[in-house]
Structures are given as C-alpha cells and as structure tokens.
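Preliminary data (for renewal application), zinc ion complex.
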Amino acid sequence: MSELEGVRIHITGVVQGVGFRPFVFGLASRLELLGWVRNTSAGVDLEVDGSPKAIRKFTQSLREEAPPLARIDEISVDRGEPYGFTEFQIIHSQPLEGAFQPISPDVSLCADCERELFDPKDRRYRYPFINCTNCGPRFTIITDIPYDRPNTTMEPFQMCPECSKEYYDPQDRRFHAQPVACPTCGPSIWLEVGGRKIAEREAALQEVRKRLQKGEVIAVKGLGGFHLACDATNLETVLELRRRKLRVDKAFAIMMPDLDTVEEHCDLCEEERKLLLSHERPIVIVPRKVESSVVADVAPGQDTLGVMLPYTPLHVLLLEKQPGFPPALVMTSGNVSEEPIATHNEEARVRLSDLSDAFLLHDRGIQTRCDDSVVRVFENNIYPLRRSRGYAPYPVHLRKEGIPLLAVGAELKNTFCLTRGKYAFLSHHIGDMENYETLISFEDGIQHLEKLFRVKPEALAYDLHPNYMATRYALERSEQENIPTIGVQHHHAHIAACMAENGLDGSRSVIGISFDGTGYGDDGAIWGGEIFLCDYRGYERLYHLAYIPLPGGDKAIYQPWRIAVAWLKRLGLEVGSLPSLREALDPEEVLIVQQQIEKNINAPLTSSMGRLFDAASAVCGVRHVVNYEAQAAIEFEALVDYEEKGLYDFIVREKDVDPAPLFQSLINDLNDGISRRKIAARFHNTVVQIVIDACLKIRDRFSVSDVALSGGVWQNMFLLSRTVSALRDLDFTVHIHHEVPTNDGGLALGQAVVALRTLDSA
Ligand code: ZN
Ligand code: ZN
Ligand code: FE
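Predicted structure:
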C-alpha cells in the first residue's frame, strides 16, 4: 500500500446549485478517498486523504466528469500530511464575509424531470414546477447568496416530508435542489378571467389550451416574466394581438412543442438544432419554410422566424402535442409596447388586462425579470442579439483583474455590467430606457446584482450622451457616493466589448469597424460609421462616413424619408424626380425638412451607417416610415439578390468616406428600372468595399491586421458574412461577437473594460 497524503482543494466557478457536492461525494467514494466537501460563499472547499495516484485521478476527474451545469474556473490544490479522516462527508455551508461567486442562470427542464413529468406513477406527474439539481429556475428566483432555499422566492413553501427526504439525501437527484417542490407542498397554477379564479391546476391547464385553440390571447406567467400567448397559425388572432400590443409589425417570437415540429416549419442547420435544444433555450432566428402554416404576420417582411422550444415544465404541458392543438404559439413578452415585461401577478392584472382574455397565473415569485434571449447562427457559431434568460448573469471572463466597477450601458437595449476580479457580470436585458418603468427596473437590477455579487463599485463608466438616462444615473450617483466616473465614447465601447470577449489583451491595436445607428461623438455629432485604430485605452478616428444633416434628429430614426431628403438635397436633386418618394411624401413636410437643413434647425450632423441604410431603403421606396428601430434596414437586407456582384462608387478622403457617388448611381439605377433586389445587393456590396478599402489603407500605414466588427449594423447577416469573408481572403484576422450582442446590449462590457484600463494606467 502506497503512502497517503492529504490535500486541500478550492474550486471556483458555477459550482453551487448544480449538483456539484453529490458529484464529489460519488467520485470520492469510487476512488476510496476520505474527507469532506462543503459550499462556501466563494465556491466549493474540500479536504481529502488518499494515495497520490488516487488524488491525481480525483483532481483530473473533478474537471472532466463535472455535472453538466457546472462551469469550473479554477481548481487550486494544496498538498500536505494526511488529515486522518475516517469517512467522506458533505458538511455545512460556510458563509464568508464579502465573498462571492458566479450564480447559475436559469436552466431548462432536464430529460429526467421530463420523463417523470409524463409518468403517471410519479408523484410529480404533470406537475408544472418539477425540477432537480440539473434543471429549473436559478437566477430569476435568487434573492441573496449563498444559494440556499431561504434566499430564494421558494422561501414561503414548506417542504413536505417526501420532498425533504430527497433534499437531504446526497444520493438523490434532488439533493439540495433549492426549488424542489411537489403538488403537495409547492407552487401551483390557476386561471383567472375577469378577475375571478375559474379553474385550478390540471383543469386550468386544459381550459387554457381550449381557449388558445379557440383563438384567445392568454397572459401566461413564466420563468422570468409574463408572455402573451396565442395560436401562431390563426391570422385573426395574430392581428388582434398586434392591435392590442400596439406593435404594428415587429416580429413575434414563437414556441413550438419539439424539434420535429420546428423542422416542419423551418430549415435548420446543425448548430441551430443544438442551440434550440441547449439548456439555455434561447429564441433562435431561423429561415422559415414557405409552406409553414405559421401566419406571415408573425414576422412581417421577413423570411425568418424567431423560434424557441419549451423551457419550463409548464411550457411543456401548455404546448403538448395533440390533434387540433396549434403546432406553434406566439409567445411574446407580456408588456405594452416597449415597457418592461410584467413579473408580478398584481402588476400583470393591471397592465395586461386590456391585452389578454385570461390569465394563467402561479404563486412562485419572480425576483429578477428576465426576457427570453435571442440568438442567430453565424458560421456554425452562436451570434447573440439579446443575452438574457439562460445566459445572464454568467460572467464574461476578463484577461486582467481590476477594481469593482459599474458600467451603466446605453439607452436602447440597455444592459449594465458589474466587474469584480476577473469577472464581468453583464446583466439581463433591461430594455429601452425611454420610460419610467424601465428606469426603475434598471435601478432595481443594479441594486440586486451589487448585492448578489457583493460588489461595491469604486468607479462608474458611462456613455458620453448627456441625455441618456443611464448617463444621468451614473453622474448623480457619482456625486452622492463620491466615486470617480469615466465617460466612454459609444463606438470605442462597442469595439472594446468585441476585443474583450475575444480575449485580446490590448497590447496590440485593432482596426475597429463600428457601424451603428446612433452614438454620441467627441465633437457632439451623431456618430455611427466609424473606423478606428484602437486599443482599450483610446482610439484614433481614422475614417468615418461623411457628415450629413439629420433633419429632425431622433425623429429621423422613425422617419427614414427625412434622411433620404437630406441626401437628395446634397446631390442637388428634386424629391419630385424620384417616383418612389414623390408618391409617398407630403410636399409640405418635405419643404419643412428642406428648410430645417438650410437653416440648420434641429438638423444635427451624423456619420451614422444605420442612417445610410435608412436613406437607401427610403430612396428605393422600401420604407419611408418605420414602426421599430432599423426596420427600413432589415427589410432592405431581406431584398438582397445574392447573385448580384455589382457595386457603386464612393470617395475616400483623408478623414472620411463620402457615399455621394453611391447615391447618384443608386438613383440612376432606379431610373433605369434596375430591380430593387439588385440595387439592394449593390448597396450592400459597396459597404463591404468601403470596409475593405479602409482596412487595406490602415494596414499599409500602421501594419495592423486585426479587425474587430461591432455595432448594431452588424446584425445585418448579409453584410456580416460578405465582410468577414472578404477580409479573411485578404489575410486579416477578424473578430466578431459570440458572447455578448453586437448591438447596444453588449456595450456595457466595453465601457467596463475601457474604464478598467483607463484607471489602470492613471
Ligand atoms: Zn431536472
Ligand atoms: Zn413536496
Ligand atoms: Fe450602438
């Protein structure tokens, strides 16, 4: 028998609430090691005695065989004399002052629980809140750390003896599963119509399914908030929902019962299948089949559908396949227009009463509002558009440790970011900060995450736009708490976010192509077509789109015809010379806009690439007015003829790129009767060429060949794929987003890393 040694091991990462201690217990028994394991507020600690060989195998297996939901960051091992243990035990959690650890995001129903859900002999047969250590709610129910039942919204539910037995048995799949529950002791569902409870439990579920089938809109309380659900194959219902939600034509997300059903309606690639089935269960934007029975008005003007699979047991039961039941439900967020989604029963009864015919409610509290995440697939890899439920608050890992800091993000699609050590905790989706409710949700979210991660910010990073609500929050708070602030230019933050998530250490500069809708520039203009040479500390603005007046300012975002008029004026053309505009616009309004430009009244200068797309789309008659941000560009992209290789001219000057020749040729094409599909392609090809020309010039001058692409315009998949492959063909190294969104939803991460580096070098 070989010599024994004793080791002390500390593990950090997502290791609590994921079945880690039972796994360690099992592994130790298998390798005949003695000792103990416990949770602390900083991770998992353990001490064991064993032969060096067994201990080596043990530490190796800790990583290799860890439970599916565990994400290990570090394992540190201290060797020494054996302790003299006589058994292996799981011992009590030890809270440590100020310590913290990452918290698991919410996890979709696991296969074992799904099997039990449909097993008539199981005591949780058809129970909508079944869960275990491998699945269930986490982030949305946690009120504080350590992650123990009293620190969750399950606190009011007293475990029954049977649940309790499972909870305390290390051999059980529900050992220390904090949300463990059953029909006897746990939360339940009920149906309300007109403020009256009309059914409970299974009867409520069946009644809701009947009503959905009949075409009603039902408010359904889910995991991170309410959805509005209705039959996605019923045109009348879908239109009615649009009318009630004041959402004229922004796409609705849908939920389908299983992957087979999705395959019937959409063309999927392997990575899309994987993402649909992943335990994060995001909405995946996928190409729709022409023969799909999902009504076109679910996603007007688009050839894609945003699809997700059921992620809670309640959703699985709600969508259960049966003859006559719709193959797809619209599951759009339960809110009016752009307000935050409702999370509490009382709030929903008030805010959603005009939107829904009935309420499917439950009594498990939602601590943190968490919208569904939205992703696409690009080059067989995830390309996030909204990072929230399932992903938040899992941290982005930083290259360098820094001080605790809060970056407040931007105005639209807001998220904020807290840093501590090497972790950057990017928040769940907060939304568009255009109303009081969203501001409250933002402030509550910051307070909650600061508590959960024990972060007391020592600095605040913010966007330079003086009127952003988030900016004002940062400036006010800095005054109250007397902590320093760092203003970070919007497009610098975009590029820095892309660099950070790609693990660049910043020792070498990159060419940052930030193509975006709106961002406040150093000179007070509205930037958004920016080509930088930059690192984390700063940037040099090498090229930008030539400035053009944006008549009406923010108003122009929703009225692309305004920027089109500005372009025609710049070229000395009459609006009347273009049938696509002449027929659509009110001559009087056009006159006012022209005067706005001439007299420079509320016509700020812009270099925005997003607005260039808007102008082209409006000139072509695709969209003169939009109902949601970037709609004109999205519909213009949908027109692109993939075979068309032509492009237009542009002028590269010392500091800027002038697209005037592009517009002149585009208008000539229109007058020559060239199809809009070809024109859309030529326009996109031109933008690709602008990037290529600029990158080649910069490489010649500065010998830099790393390119980072960030900003909302890179949600345009045609533009992205053509640009990436053209750059690669020329041997550039291209960095794009895979962890956080390329739109403003990823901005706070960039603000955080820029601020950390700025403080570092100060
Ligand atoms: Zn489970
Ligand atoms: Zn129970
Ligand atoms: Fe932006």
